[in-house]
């Protein structure tokens, strides 16, 4: 029943095969978009990080290739490069500049609402006072971007799985202390092969009690069982990635029935070698099976992608037309963690 309702909301329509571009004035890349899965540090352009490293006289040259892009061979090397790049972001002012750069890029890609993962681990070492200063700087930059480019930002505080449950407890304190109209959610990222969701139950319970909405990375490097555990133990309403649920179709059906939203990042999965090309990505199957999903970039410069590119590649791979993408944007806004007034405001931009 839920699935039928969902199909109505999405206005599911499919074109015949072979349509690279949608009908009408626009190409799909020009449509208004809602992005719910973006790591702020992971969205830092390599030139921005190189510039900061130069200003601070820090040598992190080893993380770039000859072309100036981030260099990594697999997910675990990606995490190391990510943390090395982040090491040059040492002041609230750095985060303000980063937020401005990231939102300019997102707005240029047609994004009108964005939720970004924010990590007190990197912003003041999980100290609540320091975190407040970083957050203030990020918010000011976000307010300027909204006035200038019509893009709204909200934050999801994220603990990092491979840093362990004790650090997550400190992180959730930062989240609880700053929960409100800007910090709207709590989540977990990092190496899914380390630890278990049940180790983080205390932190997620605290976040929920503080009124924060919940999401967890799962089913990216862990299989369907990892998704089941995140749903059962952390009681999240959205799953970051979740793509490997496809290996257990009963789970896919449960996800669809329960209305759990998958924050799908196809370009990220393909760049990291999870799937061998766009047509092989399970997002097409999720769509057919009535699973709620959103489309995001995860860490766009690392994966040489943008929201505009994600839309274009999906359009080419699955022949999805403008109506499908419009449905995705509306469904994403529905799944956003912001308050009703913000949702209403953003809806007018779609
Ligand atoms: N942190 C940044 N990107 C991530 C990803 N794709 N998976 C897990 N943690 C991350
Ligand atoms: Zn992610």
Automatic annotation (TrEMBL):
Cofactor names: Zn(2+)
Pfam families: A_deaminase
Gene Ontology MF term list: deaminase activity; hydrolase activity, acting on carbon-nitrogen (but not peptide) bonds, in cyclic amidines; metal ion binding
InterPro entries registered for this protein in UniProt: A_deaminase_dom, Ado/ade_deaminase, Metal_Hydrolase
Residue ranges occupied by any Adenosine deaminase domain in the UniProt entry: 33-349
Keyword annotations of the record: Hydrolase, Metal-binding, Zinc
Keyword Zinc belongs to the record: yes
Similarity comment: Belongs to the metallo-dependent hydrolases superfamily. Adenosine and AMP deaminases family.
Name of the featured protein: Adenosine deaminase
